Amino acid sequence: MEHFRELTVLSLEQATVVPYLTFRLAQDGARVIRLENPLSCDPNRLIGVNVMGEDRMNAYFLCINAGKKAITLNLASVEGQEVLRDLIRELRVDIFATNQLPKNYRKLGIDYASLKAVKPDIIWLGVTGFGPESNETAYDPILQARSGLMALTGEPQGDPQVLGIPLPDMGAAEHAYGLVMKALYARERTGEGTRIDLSMFESAVSWLTVPLTLFASFGLEITRRGNTHEFFCPVSVYRTRDGYIYLAVGNDRQWDSIVALEPFNFLDKEQYQKNAGRICDVEKLNRAINSVTQQFTSQQLLEMFRSISVPISEIKTIPEVAADPLVEPTLITARDPRTRTTITLAPPPAATPFLETNSYELSFPPRLGEHNLEIYGKLPGYSAECLDRLRETGVI
Question: How is domain 235-314 classified at the CATH fold level?
Answer without folding.
Answer: formyl-coa transferase, domain 3 (3.30.1540)
